[in-house]
Amino acid sequence: MNVRTLSLVAAALVGISQAAIAETKIGFVNSDRVMREAAPAVRAQQRLEKEFEKRDQELQRLAKDLQSMQEELERNGTTMADSDRRTKERALGELNRDFQRKQREFREDLNQRRNEELASVLDKANRTVKQIAESESYDIIFQEAVYASPKIDITDKVIKTLSEAK
């Protein structure tokens, strides 16, 4: 093959690939933003806050009790009788263990419920993205990108659709 034929073939291939790219409809959705701003995500967060509010207040009360016992022991420990000081130290240790256990259980329960709620929201978001992709003939929609042009960003559309759905 001569150089001229090779150049013509290369130009034809470039033209074909550019035409194929031009026909491809690409979209981008910022899933983090959807999970923060969409109405189902906001409602899920509010449900979690309401569900765990009393336990959180109880933990805060326990932390204050623990701190006041610690301060009292530090302030009066040197003037207390040995038996009184040991009794207070034991009570402080028990309260501290109880607080640590309740705090750990609270975090575990909260994380489990948050994961359940987020899985539900994520499922709805994925169905919404798929619905938009099919109705508007997108070939591909990316969730992660180093950069995405605002022209292809459909995040607002996803948030709006999710917020309108019940």
UniProtKB/TrEMBL annotation:
The keyword Signal applies. GO terms for cellular component: cytosol. Keywords: Signal. GO terms for molecular function: unfolded protein binding. Residues 71-98 are annotated as: Disordered. It comes from the Bacteria. SUPFAM superfamilies: OmpH-like (SSF111384). InterPro entries: Chaperone_Skp (IPR005632), Skp_dom_sf (IPR024930). Residues 1-22 form the signal peptide. Pfam families: OmpH. Belongs to the skp family. This is Outer membrane protein H. It comes from Thauera aromatica K172.
